[in-house]
């Protein structure tokens, strides 16, 4: 028996009510699930360039990655704002969320890895020179994290809006730059050559910064908020590098050591990217840390 639909006006909007599957369901002509999520538009965005059945999954995996990268960019901009205003507890929340997103993105490569070499070769020629190297969101994410290389935006020169935006992000302080400024505001002696550097250039590790992080970690109980910040941004890089690694292994599994569609060295290029560190002293200082007992023995007994 079909349930009867009741119609009425609520808040000036035509509204409907019906008993469906044992539940009283209400909807209206205002905002719906599909309108809110733009479902029709979203589902119309998968446009294969071949008639090969494997291409749809390839598109969906990469589009979902782009959506999660968009969320990561949103969160990092919040983190930069929160660190800049000394709201570390709010920054922690976004850092934790990015870590969860990255773990999800790492697992997403498992879906793409179901694409066999033969599967990919059925539609790879149709991709022409289209490549993940051209992902402007990924480039923005790397710039925000600190991997600054101006020539990486050359492939976007024909899209002025994208190019100008990436140039703005390139010239702005990264997450690590803002973190080091926070340490300076807390009284740590950050060299002016680091605080006032050209942000469009790659960050160069400094022994002074390594020693500052070592001090924070060695005195964690007295600087818990900075210690926690250090651990959470380290976790961000940890998962980001794991995502990079899984990307490299997935590409290796699917195409071997062929060149990328845009002409890069393919897997070899992705391997090279694994050496890029966003927060270098947070990693290097771990080799310099000593146990609390050793620290006590270094102190004068009197």
Description:
Helix content is 57%, strand content 6%. It is mainly alpha-helical. It has a single domain, classed as Methane Monooxygenase Hydroxylase, Chain G, domain 1 (Up-down Bundle), CATH 1.20.58.480. Strands 1-2-3 form a 3-stranded antiparallel sheet, with no helix packed on it. A hairpin with a 2-residue loop joins strand 1 (6-10) and strand 2. The N and C termini lie far apart (90 Å). The mean pLDDT is 93.
Annotate the secondary structure layout.
Blueprint: E1 6-10, E2 13-20, E3 23-28, H1 33-37, H2 39-43, H3 55-84, H4 88-112, H5 117-123, H6 136-145, H7 160-171, H8 175-185, H9 192-195, H10 207-218, H11 224-255, H12 267-273, H13 280-284, H14 292-297
Antiparallel strand pairs: 1-2, 2-3
Shape field: globular
**Strand coverage percent:** 5-15%
- Counted by DSSP, the helix tally is 14
SSE-based structural type: mainly alpha
Radius of gyration, in Å, reads: 25 Å
User: What CATH first level would be assigned?
Assistant: Mainly Alpha
What's the count of strands? 3
Mean pLDDT score = 93
In N-to-C order, the SSE pattern is EEEHHHHHHHHHHHHHH
Question: Major beta sheet, specifics?
Answer: 3 strands, antiparallel
Question: How much helicity do the residues have?
Answer: 55-70%
Strand order of the largest sheet: 1-2-3
């Amino acid at each position: 028996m079909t349930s009867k639909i009741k119609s009425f006006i609520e808040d000036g909007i035509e509204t409907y009510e019906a008993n469906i599957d044992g539940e009283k369901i209400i909807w209206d002509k205002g905002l719906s699930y599909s309108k809110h999520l733009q479902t029709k538009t979203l589902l119309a965005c998968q446009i294969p360039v071949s008639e090969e059945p494997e291409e749809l999954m390839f598109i969906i995996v990469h589009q979902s990655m782009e959506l999660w990268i968009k969320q990561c960019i949103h969160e990092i901009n919040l983190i930069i704002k929160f660190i800049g205003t000394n709201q570390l507890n709010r920054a922690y929340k976004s850092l934790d969320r990015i870590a969860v997103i990255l773990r999800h993105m790492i697992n997403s490569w498992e879906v793409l890895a179901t694409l066999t070499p033969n599967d990919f070769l059925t539609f790879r020629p149709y991709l022409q020179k289209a490549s993940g190297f051209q992902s402007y969101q990924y480039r923005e994410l790397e710039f925000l994290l600190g991997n600054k290389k101006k020539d990486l935006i050359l492939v976007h020169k024909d899209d002025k809006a994208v190019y100008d935006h990436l140039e703005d992000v390139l010239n702005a302080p990264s997450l690590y730059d803002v973190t080091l400024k926070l340490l300076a505001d807390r009284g740590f002696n950050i060299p002016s050559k680091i605080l006032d550097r050209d942000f469009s250039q790659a960050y160069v590790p400094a022994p002074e910064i390594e020693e500052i992080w070592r001090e924070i970690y060695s005195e964690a109980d007295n600087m818990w908020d900075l210690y926690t910040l250090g651990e959470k941004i380290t976790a961000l890089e940890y998962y980001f590098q794991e995502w990079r690694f899984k990307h490299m292994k997935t590409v290796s599994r699917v195409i071997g050591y062929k060149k990328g569609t845009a002409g890069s060295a393919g897997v070899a290029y992705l391997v090279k990217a694994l050496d890029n560190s966003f927060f270098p002293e947070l990693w290097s200082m771990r080799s310099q840390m000593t146990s609390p007992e050793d620290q006590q023995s270094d102190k004068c007994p009197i």
